[in-house]
Design goal:
This protein folds into two domains: 98 residues, membrane protein fhac (Ubiquitin-like (UB roll), Roll); 142 residues, 3-Layer(aba) Sandwich (Rossmann fold). Helices cover 35% and strands 26% of the residues. The protein is built from six helices and twelve strands.
Length: 245
């Protein structure tokens, strides 16, 4: 009796496994897709756009879904950082997609019309989406390697400065643009006032930004927000303010 019960249980489990395998391979047919389950933000590509790209790719292929081809199709978009696609036993196509998140935008120089993410990766702007980030004016003399700022020593310094600003609630609100000249000196253009902030080479960030905070917290409220045309913080232990004549 026990043997019969054991065989019945094994037969039942085996039937479930066989049915699951049949269902799995049947669901590999393109026409058997139940729905798309997309996990992604809407930075550059929204879920509807992702779904449309996948549908078009599946239609032009054979009746068999090639997940690598689908992933490569999405990865060919310059705003996509990584993607993983798989199909579950219910026939749903699961898509996990990460997009680049811009922290700055280069608006002039040899790398113009490109965004930068927090890891220094450069990628093109989009006609479908515009992110409000720090604008970077670069000299044509400044270049970076393989579309990543972190591949050069100066690029790493720039990234440290950009991330420093982006991670500070006050600085990210007041700093709108950064000029980088051919000698790699930086001038900051704030949003709150008219003066230019002469920053110099992007080193000693804590000291220089602390001096900028002193200017906005103590000097500007006392002397007037637009009393000075320049504020120079590049010299050690000094804040040099040049008045508007």
């Amino acid at each position: 009796m026990i043997t019969i019960i054991r065989k019945s249980i094994l037969l039942f489990i085996g039937s479930i496994i066989i049915y699951s395998l049949v269902l799995f391979f049947r669901n590999n047919d393109a026409d058997s897709i139940n729905r798309f389950l997309i996990d992604s933000d809407s930075t550059f590509l929204n879920n509807n756009t992702i779904e449309r790209i996948l549908e078009d790719k599946i239609k032009e292929d054979s009746t068999r879904i090639n997940y690598n081809d689908l992933e490569n199709t999405l990865m060919s978009n310059p705003h996509v950082k990584s993607v993983k696609i798989y199909k579950d036993l219910s026939g749903n196509l699961n898509v996990s997609l990460d997009q680049y998140e811009p922290v700055a935008r280069i608006v002039s120089g040899s790398h113009s019309k490109k965004y930068i993410d927090s890891h220094g990766e450069m990628f093109p702007i989009s006609r479908n989406f515009t992110e409000r980030v720090i604008l970077i004016h670069l000299s044509n003399k400044i270049n970076f390697i393989d579309n990543n700022l972190n591949n050069t020593q100066f690029g790493r310094k720039i990234m440290e400065m950009i991330n420093y600003i982006s991670n500070d609630d006050f600085l990210v609100k007041i700093i709108s643009e950064i000029d980088v000249d051919k000698n790699k000196n930086i001038i900051i253009h704030p949003q709150l006032s008219k003066q230019k902030i002469i920053f110099g080479y992007p080193v000693d960030l804590d000291e220089k930004f602390n001096k900028i905070m002193i200017f906005y917290e103590k000097i500007a409220p006392l002397k007037g927000w637009n009393t000075y045309k320049t504020v120079n913080v590049k010299f050690k232990n000094q804040i040099v303010c040049d008045k508007i004549v």
